[in-house]
């Protein structure tokens, strides 16, 4: 898998595919300096060679991975949005609304915190 289109084609439910496609497009428009690359069979948003955020899809939800620090920093906001989380990602059920402000805050946070970083991961 090399492109976002190929990733999206792996999601069998068309409405789920469109929801994630719309989200990816929103990120690219809202944060034009980010590049979307497929790594480990999932779309990852990269800024100056460092990881910012990734998505993966499953039958009942899609996962958002902002790294451990992002989950810890936004843990309460994730819960307040109605999403459940682990130490490395949170899950948005397909029937839940996307909290764009939360995602925007996470992306902005990671971009700021990792501005001088030269490695991919923290």
Question: Would you kindly provide a brief summary of this structure?
Answer:
This protein is of the alpha+beta class.
Properties at a glance:
122 residues; alpha+beta; globular
Structure explained in plain terms:
There is one protein chain. This protein has 122 residues and is of the alpha+beta class. The protein is globular and about 40 Å long. A hairpin with a 2-residue loop joins strand 1 and strand 2. The mean pLDDT is 95. Strands 1-2-3-4-6-5 form a 6-stranded antiparallel β-sheet. The protein is 41% helix and 25% strand. The two termini are 25 Å apart.
Helix-and-strand structural type = alpha+beta
Average pLDDT metric: 95
Radius of gyration: 14 Å
Adjacency order of strands in the biggest sheet: 1-2-3-4-6-5
The helical percent reads 40-55%
The overall strand count is: 6
Low-confidence stretches: none
Structural shape:
globular
Distance between the termini: 25 Å
Order of helices and strands: HHEEEEHHEEH
The fraction of residues assigned to DSSP E strands is: 15-25%
Largest sheet: 6 strands, antiparallel
Given the structure, what is the number of helices? 5
Topology (SSEs and partners):
Layout (H helix, E strand, L loop, with lengths): L3 H6 L4 H17 L4 E5 L2 E6 L2 E8 L3 E5 L1 H7 L1 H6 L3 E2 L4 E4 L6 H14 L9
Antiparallel strand pairs: 1-2, 2-3, 3-4, 4-6, 5-6
């Amino acid at each position: 898998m090399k492109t976002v289109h190929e990733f999206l084609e792996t999601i069998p439910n068309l409405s789920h595919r469109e929801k994630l496609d719309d989200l990816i497009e929103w990120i690219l428009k809202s944060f034009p300096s980010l590049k979307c690359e497929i790594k480990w069979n999932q779309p990852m948003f990269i800024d100056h060679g460092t990881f910012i955020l990734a998505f993966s899809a499953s039958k009942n939800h899609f996962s958002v991975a902002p790294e451990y620090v992002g989950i810890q920093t936004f843990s309460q906001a994730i819960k307040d949005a109605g999403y459940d989380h682990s130490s490395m990602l949170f899950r948005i059920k397909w029937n839940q609304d996307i909290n764009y402000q939360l995602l925007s805050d996470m992306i902005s946070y990671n971009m700021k915190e990792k501005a001088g970083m030269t490695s991919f991961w923290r």
